[in-house]
């Protein structure tokens, strides 16, 4: 019986040795078991300055040309607008309800059919006309009762044209389009972004049946062109929440957890720093991986990026390597850590075997 203990420990060491054989843990040469079905679906890519430069070039600021080429036209009156008509030296026409009334009380509401009524002019078609066209039309019709009428026109309340805001805005709903061109940034400013929960890199502009994704975080770049985007009637802006926009830090880090994106991107250095960095006693600096999945592993090849942080220059590269939502950052254990963990697992087993041998010896002595 006493010989069973060394034999069991030797067997345990032999089995544990299999854990360190090539293909059983993540390393630069054997990410998965060679020849396995998974090996053809996973590509190991070293993170190098060249790779970072290529990805940075691919992630430049891009805005659809049709968004930049659109220029707002002169405002055209529509149903629901409240128009104020001034006829100089004729207060009975300018303010028929009396000058003591609020200015809106003397406004002319454009009816749902696009018409409005004005004294001595009658019912006229207002919808579709510019403010200047409406002013000229009223002035020409007033010449029958007023000599050389001096007419002015303005819109008191804009209601016929609007842009709709939804999602992670502080104020959702319609934003009126007025005779002052409404830019994308003006609309976002009026809605107010919920900074802690909005995915500012995923703003969606819906226009004429198409959707455009706009990264608001690029505003801080000197080459940003977002200020050149103007909105028009019927546009919709949806700002998604960042609930599902996370990266996951696992393995030999000081505080493994999920991190939520605060902007359009998060670099590898920021991610590792947010969890307190690598565990100095247990981690392997050469085994820092970024695991990037795909929607269909049967068709597409998943990429696993590897960075060797043993080199000081690697920290510069890590600062420029951009993570993507749902990336998993995994830091592998050092070889001595694997050995220590093996020992911690073997000794409880050895103690159990030793206890079993002692009990067996006692039983043998008692039987004698």
From TrEMBL:
It is a multi-pass membrane protein. Residues 336-362 form the Outer-membrane lipoprotein Wza C-terminal domain. Residues 71-155 form the Polysaccharide export protein N-terminal domain. Residues 161-238, 245-331 form the SLBB domain. Keywords: Cell outer membrane, Ion transport, Lipoprotein, Membrane, Palmitate, Polysaccharide transport, Porin, Signal, Sugar transport, Transmembrane, Transmembrane beta strand, Transport. This is Polysaccharide biosynthesis/export family protein. InterPro entries: Poly_export, Poly_export_N, SLBB_dom, Wza_C. The keyword Lyase does not apply. PROSITE patterns: PROKAR_LIPOPROTEIN (PS51257). Belongs to the BexD/CtrA/VexA family. It is found in: Cell outer membrane. Pfam families: Poly_export, SLBB_2, Wza_C.
